[in-house]
């Protein structure tokens, strides 16, 4: 199974490093043969938020098929203006079995028209903007993540860790998700 | 104030990305004029654990003075064998005002002779090894982090986030640490 995490300049660091840590730890503990990679629009160095120098594994041109797409937040506004990015997200989402957002990554999924009619969430600071900008969404607050079949949206920054543990539970099993949280010494905030 | 985070091949991703996220968010919210950077032994691309492609900002040869040194864990055993790394850590620690470890980064500080006589902690899986390998340390479990004046050691992986929030509280103030946790939607596990 191939996990593609979409990153870009000024993406929030923990939005992508948290899910990467969860998935790679789960992969190691569970011997899942998962392939976890970062994807950016173009090749080369990405400057994530705060000047964090990260490389993607693949660009839009050369990435493997993506079964699980994770779109992260941060300073996402430039991404919304890029027709090439939005059409790539829409195309990959169409063929993926799961599509998730962390933090303001929900705006990118919304811009791609993927969240219409769904119950979703985002960073607490951006709840009202998401409602105003995309009135076809049912935006909720005070949930770490919201799962709606194929689509999962999570709250701000560290909530992406909880959401990704849920993905592990869903795609592998609950025992592995709990073992992963224990390995990370992370107090998983499950929805129960 | 200059924060240097030491990274290396097979360093655990969240061990360094978590503290970077905390410090850069605190810096943005608090207008602290903090300089937060990653340091590696040599220039070039680092493959953190799980094949995570990260660049350091500086090498041992060209980094600015470090006021706060954070040494991270992961597969740390190769680092212990590198005399150049251990002597660099010892030298930087001598001039730093705070020295912290995340997870098995405690072994690197211990190898540099910095933790003798102190109460310290590490990842839960490595508590007994740390006791055996460095009998001059008082190793404890079931604490997210242990502060001993200049030296702070934290538990595994995500505990580095809690420890770094404590650093923010200590070096700036408690209000900023709480605001940073709120911005990250992180449930800070404080020692109270």
Can you describe what's shown?
The structure is a homodimer of 192-residue chains. The first copy, chain A, has one domain: Class I glutamine amidotransferase (GATase) domain (Rossmann fold). Chain A contains seven helices and eleven strands. In chain A, helix 6 runs antiparallel to helix 7. Helices cover 38% and strands 21% of the residues of chain A. Chain A has a seven-stranded mixed sheet with strand order 5-2-1-6-7-11-10, sandwiched between helices. Chain A is globular and about 40 Å long. Chain A is an alpha/beta fold and 192 residues long. The longest helix of chain A is centred in the first third of the chain and has 18 residues.
Q: Which features characterize this protein?
A:
globular, two-stranded antiparallel ribbon, 7 helices, 192 residues, alpha/beta, seven-stranded mixed sheet, Rossmann fold, homodimer
